[in-house]
Carboxylic ester hydrolase
Amino acid sequence: MFGLKNVLSLAVILPFARLAVGQAAEWGQCGGIGWSGATTCVSGTVCTKLNDYYSQCLPGSATTPPPTTTVPATTPPPGTTTSTGSAPPGLSSIPASTLHQITGFGTNPNNVPVYVYKPARVAANPPLIMAIHYCGGSAQAYYTGSKFAQLSETYGYVVLYPSSPHSGTCWDVSSNQTLTHNGGSDSLGIASAARYAIANWGVDANRVFAVGTSSGAMMTNVLAAAYPDIFKAGIVDSGVPAGCFSLPGQPEDSWNAQCAQGQLVLTGQQWAQRVFDAYPGYTGARPKMQVWHGTVDTVLYPQNFYETVKQWTTVFGYPSTPISNVSEPYLPSGYSNATYGPNFQAILAQGVGHTVPLFEQQYLQFLGIA
Ligand SMILES: *[C@@H]1O[C@H](CO)[C@@H](O)[C@H](O)[C@H]1NC(C)=O
Ligand SMILES: *[C@@H]1O[C@H](CO)[C@@H](O)[C@H](O)[C@H]1NC(C)=O
Ligand SMILES: *[C@@H]1O[C@H](CO)[C@@H](O)[C@H](O)[C@H]1NC(C)=O
């Protein structure tokens, strides 16, 4: 925690303290915790806050509402819904199109608060997205700062937003409990909420997914390692490998500066072992994973991108070099999409800091929802 507090307090004391040199380019970073570069954008673009850690020069004028102020639509666009028009049994008591806290969803040692967003029209056997916030965030902040809820109105899936119970609102990704299948702590509370949704809401057990940013990205890797039986895919935005923060015997939710700074460099086999150790004896399928990271991330250093690549390529038995590595038309220039096999993609974002902006529509494609 102390390392994190230092990071956060530094960011509070020195926000944009250095004089910005020039203007940030289109798609460039223009603000956020830890950012000391340009805070104004080239003309034709607007500096838009995407989360506490990242503001970006987006094309267009100020008339485009920034994602942080996006209010989820209460009615789906006509003709685009895949829904049946009636909620599965168990979901009917949940109010639609609003963030709603659920309780009594099973074993939850740390009393992780969990919120649900149910769209107006839920698909039959809906997919479930567990959307996991960054340090300093909350379920509410991730709900308003992302488009997962808004897009559920189109695609009919259900969103769960866990909220960290810890001071500083990072997730416990360091204790032995959280890093072990059914071992306890935050990961078990989150897993319980997913199990509850499958058991009571008609959620399709084959389409339960985790998505997270920063600390939530670390948790996504932890869930993928410790609960591969529940989570069928994960999207990791600016995180660290599963087990990288491991500090057994120290308090839950400890900050691991060695990992954060990219100094924990292991072999693929050693990283894969951390995944296997998270659920000893598990022989089933592993979640398909998509990992995003910026090359100038100074909170969770970009070495963590390459360590995460080693981890999952080894777990999947994929080659250590990508079979393709290309730019994508929908992504800003400087982003490269490295594919290692059908279940693993790693997107590196040149010149992007902490964190990579969300690309929700593309995540939905990866998850097979859109
Ligand atoms: C980690 O937790 C598991 C399950 O709670 C336990 O079996 C194991 O002995 C623990 N390992 C360490 C190193 O504490
Ligand atoms: C993909 O290619 C880019 C350069 O185009 C390179 O910077 C990046 O490291 C490559 N990605 C991987 C995972 O090797
Ligand atoms: C990365 O490339 C693969 C292979 O072409 C493609 O299937 C996938 O959609 C791409 N991922 C992203 C995030 O663009």
Remarks:
- The longest helix spans residues 185-201.
- The first strand starts at residue 29 and ends at 31.
- The CA atoms of residues 297 and 353 lie 4 Å apart.
- Residues 28-59 form one domain.
